[in-house]
Design brief:
10-stranded mixed β-sheet, globular, alpha+beta, binds coenzyme A
Length: 394
C-alpha cells in the first residue's frame, strides 16, 4: 500500500511594515475603489532593506520546525524568483540560519510564481520513496514593480514554509496533477533589473486560459466534477484574478455548492488582500488563508490548488484535509503577524522602496536592529551578504 504523503505543517512570514492602498490610490490620482474592488487589494507588505527572501523564508520555517524535524530532514527546497545571488542558492543561506544538519540536500528553484509547486511535488515524490524522512519546502518572494507603475498596486512580499512528511497532520497531496508550459511574454525580469516587466492584461488572459484548459483535463483524468471540489486555493497576483478564473466554470456546480465555493474563495483571498502578491508563495498563502478564515472546512474535504507562474507554466492538483487538521493551521500566529505590522505613509514607503542595498561592491549596513527577534539581512561586507539570526529563537 502506498503511504499517504503531504503537508505536515505550514508556516508564514511577511515584513513588519504595511502600506494602506487607499492612501496610495489617492496619492497616485486613482479611484480607491479601483484598487480595493476592481483589483481587490487593501494593503501591501513594505520591504525594509533588512528583509529579503532568505530572512522571510527562515522566519517562516522557524515557526514550524522542531529539533526532531531538523534531524529527519533530507532536503531543503527554496523556491523563489527574488534570489539574492546568481550562483549560491537561498537554501544554503537558510540551512545555516536555521541550524539544519550538514547532511541534507539544498537547492533553489525558479519558474516565476510556479516554482513552489514544483518543489512541493519533488518533496512529495521523495518522501513517498523515503517515508521515514522529511523535506522542507520554502516559497518566498518580493513582488516589486516600481513606483507609480500600473503594477505598483499589486506589489507585496512574504514566505510560506511547508514540512512534507508521511502521514501528514494537515493535508494529503493526491497524485492527480495536470500541468502545462507555454513560452509567453506576460511577465519577466531581465537579469540586470530589480523590478519586473509585466503585461498584466496578457497575464490575466493566459492565467484564465490555462486554468480552463487544466480544469477540463483534470476532470477528464480523474472523473471528478466541480461539486466534488470543496474549495480552491489560487495563485493570487491580485485577488480579483481568482474570481475571474473561477467564474469561467462556476456554473458547473449546483447552486448550493456555488455559494460554498464563493464563500471559501473569499476566505482564501483574505490574507492576499492584506499582504499583496507573494509570487511563488502566493498560492500557499491562499491555502493558509482558506484554512484560517473558513470555519466550515472538515476533515476529508478535497481542495483544488491552481498554481500559475508567468512565462508561463501552470499546475492543477488537489489535496485532502486529514482529521485534526484544525490544530495545524497557524491561524493565531499569522493573524498576530499581520495585526502587529506598522503602517507606513506613502512618502515613507517610497523612501524605503528606494533604500534597498542592491550594490554588492559597497560595504554597507542595513537598518537591521540588534534587538530584533527575527532573522535579518545585516548588510554587505567584501561582496558577501551578512545575516543575523537570534540563536535563542532556534
Ligand atoms: N471602481 C471599481 N472598479 C474599478 C474602478 C473603480 N473606480 N476603476 C477601475 N476598476 C476596475 C476595472 O474595471 C478592472 O476590472 P476588471 O479587470 O474586472 O475589468 C480593474 O478595476 C482593473 O482596472 P484596469 O484598468 O484593468 O487596471 P490596470 O490597467 O491598472 O491594470 C493590473 C491592473 C492588475 C493588470 C496591473 O496592476 C498589473 O499588471 N499588475 C501586475 C499583475 C501581474 O504581475 N501578473 C503576473 C505576475 S503573477
Amino acid at each position: 500500500m502506498t503511504v499517504a504523503v503531504g503537508i505536515d505543517k505550514i508556516g508564514f512570514d511577511t515584513p513588519g511594515l504595511v502600506l494602506d492602498l487607499v492612501s496610495l490610490a489617492k496619492q497616485r490620482g486613482d479611484e480607491p475603489d479601483k484598487y480595493t474592488i476592481g483589483i481587490g487589494q487593501d494593503q501591501q507588505a513594505v520591504v525594509p532593506n533588512y528583509e529579503d527572501v532568505v530572512t522571510m523564508g527562515v522566519n517562516a520555517a522557524q515557526s514550524i520546525l522542531t529539533d526532531a524535524d531538523r534531524q529527519d530532514l533530507d532536503m531543503l527546497i527554496f523556491a523563489t524568483e527574488s534570489g539574492v545571488d546568481n550562483s549560491k542558492s537561498a537554501a544554503v543561506f537558510a540551512q545555516q540560519l536555521l541550524d539544519l544538519p550538514v547532511n541534507i540536500r539544498t537547492i533553489e528553484l525558479k519558474q516565476a510564481c510556479y516554482a513552489g509547486t514544483y518543489g512541493l511535488m519533488q518533496a512529495r515524490d521523495y518522501v513517498t520513496l523515503h517515508p521515514d524522512r522529511k523535506v522542507l519546502v520554502i516559497a518566498a518572494d518580493i513582488a516589486r514593480y516600481g513606483l507609480a507603475t500600473p503594477g505598483e498596486v499589486t506589489q507585496g512580499a512574504g514566505a510560506v514554509a511547508m514540512l512534507v512528511a508521511a502521514n501528514p497532520r494537515l493535508a494529503v497531496i493526491h497524485d492527480d496533477s495536470v500541468f502545462m508550459s507555454q513560452d509567453t511574454p506576460d511577465f519577466w525580469r531581465p537579469i540586470d533589473r530589480s523590478q519586473a516587466l509585466v503585461d498584466g492584461h496578457l497575464s490575466t488572459d493566459v492565467y484564465k486560459a490555462m486554468f480552463a484548459k487544466l480544469w477540463q483535463r483534470y476532470q477528464d483524468q480523474t472523473g471528478l466534477d466541480l461539486n466534488q471540489i470543496d474549495g480552491w486555493a489560487f495563485h493570487l497576483p491580485y485577488t480579483k484574478m481568482a474570481k475571474k478564473a473561477l467564474d469561467q466554470v462556476i456554473d458547473q456546480a449546483d447552486d448550493r455548492h456555488q455559494d460554498l465555493l464563493k464563500q471559501r474563495l473569499a476566505a482564501s483571498q483574505a490574507y492576499s488582500r492584506r499582504v499583496g502578491n507573494t509570487y511563488t508563495a502566493s498560492v500557499y498563502m491562499s491555502l493558509l488563508s482558506l484554512l484560517a478564515n473558513d470555519d466550515s472546512l472538515q476533515a476529508g474535504d478535497r481542495l483544488g490548488i491552481f498554481s500559475y507562474g508567468s512565462g508561463a507554466e501552470a499546475e492543477l492538483f488537489s489535496l485532502s484535509l486529514v482529521p485534526g487538521f484544525e490544530d495545524q493551521g497557524p491561524k493565531t500566529a499569522v493573524n498576530r503577524i499581520l495585526d502587529r505590522r506598522q503602517l507606513v505613509s506613502v512618502p515613507e514607503y517610497e523612501r524605503i522602496f528606494s533604500s534597498q542595498l542592491l550594490d554588492s561592491t559597497v560595504n554597507s549596513r542595513s537598518a537591521a536592529s540588534p534587538r530584533s527577534l527575527r532573522a535579518q539581512f545585516w548588510g554587505w561586507q567584501d561582496g558577501q551578504r551578512l545575516y543575523q539570526v537570534p540563536k535563542d529563537e532556534l
